[in-house]
Amino acid sequence: MEIDESFNQIIRDWVKTCKQKLNVINKCKPPLNYPVGKINLHKVKLIRSYFLYINRTKSRVFSFTSDEFKYWKSLFHKRIYLIDCIRTALDTDKRINEKEEKYLQLAIRTLEKYDDYYGENIILPLNRYFCNDIIRCICEFI
Fold this sequence. Notes:
Elements: H1 2-27, H2 41-61, H3 66-92, H4 98-112, H5 118-129, H6 132-141
Helix pairs in contact: 1-2, 2-4, 3-4
């Protein structure tokens, strides 16, 4: 029972940290004199830090429960959308200087490092060595 409680505490702390990071991202507004249509670099920095946190902690909190799996799936779709937005800004906006361009490229590389097939990388090797009943037990444990 102690293991379950400590794991649940880890999950609660992780969810709390993610919500805090997302709230900061949502509240991020460009300065008053910011050019219209230019990508908000401060928001990109916050998004990059969020995905770095997700990549670093995913192995400790990943689960196959339906609610969490929906979260991972939505994160995957949001990642694709963000990469497209940043690439569009890089291609079309001529006001981006060299330093900003390098940081946006770094942000794209960080977003691309997110492993959207993480669950499949766990289940497929297990499938080679165990029967389906044992795999379900292992996935429930994970």
